[in-house]
Amino acid sequence: MKFNSEWRKIKSLSISNLNVLIVDGKEVGFICKPRDTKFDKNMWRVYRGIGEANSFLCHCATKALAVKKLESIYGGNTIIDQK
User: Fold this and answer.
1) Would the CA dihedral through 24, 26, 29, 35 be positive or negative?
2) What is the DSSP string of the chain?
3) 81 lies in a domain?
4) Taking a C-beta distance cutoff of 8 angstroms, is the pair 4, 53 a contact?
5) Can you give the residue range of the structural domain that contains 54?
6) Domain count, the chain
């Protein structure tokens, strides 16, 4: 069984570069990248879940890696539950 997935960019005042992964019509996780400052270059952050139920998974150097990481959890033939 293959899952239908899509990415949606969400506008947010508090989080920049917020992208949500939607699998079969349900929001399952997101990636975001805080704004860089003069002294710090931030990495992409990968989260599983939405809202208060989210959990941090990892940092990624590029958006493409962050997308691949989150899709690897929910993509393919089965959903891997990492509890």
Assistant:
1) positive
2) -PPPEEEEEE--SSSSSEEEEEETTEEEEEEE-PPP-SS--PPEEEEESSGGG-EEEEEESSHHHHHHHHHHHH-SSSPPP--
3) no
4) no
5) 5-74
6) 1
| Number of residues written out for the chain | 83
The answer to whether residue 82 sits within a structural domain is no
Q: Any idea which residue has 């992208």 for tokens?
A: 19
Measured distance CA(54)–CA(31) in Å, rounded: 11
Q: How far is CA 75 from CA 5, 22, 24, in A?
A: 8, 11, 11
**Is 61 inside any structural domain?**
yes
At 55, list the tokens.
């959990």
Determine what percent of the chain is predicted with pLDDT higher than 90.
53
Q: What single-letter amino acid sits at 22?
A: I
Residue 2 has pLDDT above 70, yes or no: no
